[in-house]
Design goal:
The protein is α/β, with parallel strands linked by helices. The protein has one domain: Protein-Tyrosine Phosphatase, Chain A. 38% of the residues lie in helices and 18% in strands. The chain has four helices and five strands. Strands 1-2-5-3-4 form a five-stranded mixed sheet, with helices on both faces. 35% of the residues are buried.
Length: 111
Amino acid sequence: MNLTQLSPQISVRPQLLPHEIADVAAAGFKGIINNRPDGEAPDQPHSDELETEAKRQGLAYWHIPVIPGQATEQDARAFAAALEAADGPVVAFCRTGNRSSGLWKMTQQTS
């Protein structure tokens, strides 16, 4: 799994595919945060598909879509709320992992 651990509670990665969600669960993660807007790329799985598989694997799922370079304080608050609601470590993803990392950094600056 292509993960970058930012803290014991959160790791980030590039796009997550439905067939990789079982590996996320097996690695001990308790939730997934999707930071990609649906339709950003033609080959990207839809959030509903990812959420269905996450729930099938017993994982919490949050969709907090952020347009590249346009993260807001509201996005950061939603991200922080997801982390607070999580029952353990989570994986956040976007196309490359940068948006997810940036959102986490925003939460650290306001806490």
